[in-house]
Amino acid sequence: MTLYLTHRYHFSAGHRLHNEALSAEENRRLYGKCNNPNGHGHNYQLEVTLAGPIDPATGMVCDLALLDRVVDEAVLTPFDHRNLNLDEEAFRRRVPTTEHLCIEIFNRLAGKLEVETPAGVRLARVRLEETSLNFFEYHGEEKNIQGRVRD
Amino acid sequence: MTLYLTHRYHFSAGHRLHNEALSAEENRRLYGKCNNPNGHGHNYQLEVTLAGPIDPATGMVCDLALLDRVVDEAVLTPFDHRNLNLDEEAFRRRVPTTEHLCIEIFNRLAGKLEVETPAGVRLARVRLEETSLNFFEYHGEEKNIQGRVRD
Amino acid sequence: MTLYLTHRYHFSAGHRLHNEALSAEENRRLYGKCNNPNGHGHNYQLEVTLAGPIDPATGMVCDLALLDRVVDEAVLTPFDHRNLNLDEEAFRRRVPTTEHLCIEIFNRLAGKLEVETPAGVRLARVRLEETSLNFFEYHGEEKNIQGRVRD
Amino acid sequence: MTLYLTHRYHFSAGHRLHNEALSAEENRRLYGKCNNPNGHGHNYQLEVTLAGPIDPATGMVCDLALLDRVVDEAVLTPFDHRNLNLDEEAFRRRVPTTEHLCIEIFNRLAGKLEVETPAGVRLARVRLEETSLNFFEYHGEEKNIQGRVRD
Amino acid sequence: MTLYLTHRYHFSAGHRLHNEALSAEENRRLYGKCNNPNGHGHNYQLEVTLAGPIDPATGMVCDLALLDRVVDEAVLTPFDHRNLNLDEEAFRRRVPTTEHLCIEIFNRLAGKLEVETPAGVRLARVRLEETSLNFFEYHGEEKNIQGRVRD
Amino acid sequence: MTLYLTHRYHFSAGHRLHNEALSAEENRRLYGKCNNPNGHGHNYQLEVTLAGPIDPATGMVCDLALLDRVVDEAVLTPFDHRNLNLDEEAFRRRVPTTEHLCIEIFNRLAGKLEVETPAGVRLARVRLEETSLNFFEYHGEEKNIQGRVRD
To answer: Is F139 an 8 Å CB contact of chain C?
Structure first.
């Protein structure tokens, strides 16, 4: 019996889409106004989904306070009210597109949650909304797909 | 050809998270302010998803009036403007966490919908939002997973 | 030059609409399902609006951290995850309708904010949403209306 | 490594649910007020989800400008501010239920996107919201289900 | 002591913006795609605001069931799932812009509410949202403005 | 007969709250994480409200296409996907708090709209939402308050 539990979080960050391997002209064509040299920013809405059985002792899949603490340490503290390009080592050499940010968040959370959550509970999905008109989802690597068909 | 049809419903209910098998101290640590002795409450947002083929005679998966009637009888009438702990037999011995409430709603609906909906239509998902920051999803038991990989 | 600054807050509480001065029959007719003996509850969304000039030293009307602290002390701590009827002295003898709750919140905030906010800043409005379909607003007593025509 | 990218679009259209093969009486019973002879209309919210790997040169799954152009040509131009029954050949003989509209949109997009998007990127889902209380999703034909279990 | 109470309602309707006193060319220039000959439609969101004192016997400004009944009779029954141009006498000779619809709704409600609501309660505002990007508000005629400065 | 017409717009921008007249220590205390040296950013939601009579020839207060063009030129083009501190002359010497941004937008729009809108139509309000939890409103200078009591 698997339940999916999702918590929403918000953070605001600045970024600039610019690939140093490309010319100024190619960057402008590729990223449009997102290539503005001085950057811009967004209110990101993050949804973190855990999948697992209900613990019969508590009636819960996972203590939300635990999840909040892990997301706070792994995502909100480093990203909220920061400039992704300049303040984050992870985006020094990778363009901080929402795709890359979504995967970065999944990987940071997956490692910590594997240690902290009860046995049988796993990170099933990260969904990252950049504006009210676009969002991105990542469910982890394909290799374990047999065990994850329900995500 | 499978289509997924979802209808949203709202109900307001009171509850208290408290496990009688645990000490007062353990309950406070586990459920925090949700353990307040006099309870509190929420506006729950419920999404019920049916999966099925389109009936060529109507162009619809399922008459929404039928779905509304079943949800009204099975969920809204017993739960709306009620206290889940005190007014509902189902939560006399189970803590009314949103996880338990989500599964309870799924099971009540699944039984009735199997009888009432057209052949080939099944309950695919129940999603229950407790606040604007957290929600829960249940897709039914794992056993039928082969036939349900797309939920 | 007056600017209006609004901050949104959320709290979840239980309540029961019941007037002890009326008969059981009258209470049921008047409050309908809100009169359920064991109560129910809501996710309340609160908006607090301050009006005032911009402080030229900061470019702000009021430090939001100050406003958050006052709202936390005066409203969120006593009301969030509580039963309004049973946990709050203020509603022992007044029915906790959203109208009464809205005025109670305004009056609690007005007193504290008068002391804490910069000169010229005043509480202009409290807006309380009980469900996504209904909300209530209070702007304070009429007496000062001449100075408040713009609320 | 598969990422899911979703873009939201809005269009407003009129329609009438009426099946010419049925009697007036049967149409009224089946479609209720949606059978009103002069029609009515909705603000439709459309979500288009692409699935694919991240292009290492850009850090993106697909250029959103390309997706916007395809959706504009295939969906928004023909449907926005139109009457689905009278202005659209596709609904001359099919009742414009949201189910049919959802599949029509999926099929129009799938063909164009297969040609225009990078290799490995495919249309994974179309979600169409008719009102804030009901929405429909289509993931394409079942035949390719093995390769699509993660949608 | 005046409180403002607002209830939200939804209805879906079709319309066409077309002024018979103008040429086809002028209509197209003026109303753009809203002039499409076969019309289109919207999900309208309506907010009705009453202002008044709290009745000490009930703790409420006005029984919401009374307001719901009046809005149902005066607005939802005639407009929901209708074509405003063809099904409504009021828009035979007036273009059903959202401005005109907003005033029509205010006037229909004001007359009925004056009779039905408790003394001291008045219709303060009608707000009509045509899409998520535009809305209209009407507070009634200017003549009574002295007594209404707080709306 | 005055109607209020509001259009919503969205733009994303970066900013940093920092007052050069204050010490680094004072800036950190005053602006908290908004003082991060490399800045951050937001999705701003802007509402522009015009007040005026209905033009009997069109049934509208103001052509929305005209309003959109003015907002695009005066606000969206200079601010969307820009860094407010570095890309905007207006914020070289004024801290780009949302208060200042709200007034800057009002003043830019008021001048242009006075020239472009029909006689009797005026800018009544600018509302700027920085995050889903806080927003700011400005109605213009006090001096004309007699003629504006209804805003």
So the answer is: yes
pLDDT confidence band for B147 (50 / 70 / 90): very low
- Residue B111's nearest CA partner among B142, B68, B140, B143 is B140
pLDDT at B141: 85
Question: How many percent of chain B have pLDDT more than 70?
Answer: 93
Residues in chain E: 151
E:34-93 residues touching chain D, CB 8 A cutoff = 34, 36, 38-43, 80-83, 86-87
Q: Establish whether chain D is in contact with chain B, requiring a minimum of 3 CB pairs below 8 angstroms.
A: yes
The pLDDT confidence band at residue D142, using thresholds 50, 70 and 90, is low
| CATH number of the domain to which A88 belongs | 3.30.479.10
Considering just the CA atoms, what is the radius of gyration of chain E in Å?
Answer: 17
ipTM of the complex: 0.92
In chain B, which residue's Cα lies nearest the Cα of A8? Answer: B133
Total domains in chain C come to 1
Q: Where in the sequence numbering do the catalytic residues of E fall?
A: 34, 81, 130
Phi, psi (rounded to 5 degrees) for D21: -75, -10
The predicted model scores a pTM of: 0.95
Helix, strand, coil percentages for chain A (3-state, nearest 5): 40, 30, 30
Bridge partners for B13 per DSSP: B42, B82
- For residue B131, what are the domain limits? 3-150
Decide if C138 contacts C103 (C-beta within 8 A).
yes
Q: d(Cα C19, Cα C29) in Å, to the nearest integer?
A: 12
Cβ–Cβ of C97/E8 closer than 8 Å? Answer: no
pLDDT at C142: 59
Q: Is B1 touching D (CB cutoff 8 A)?
A: yes
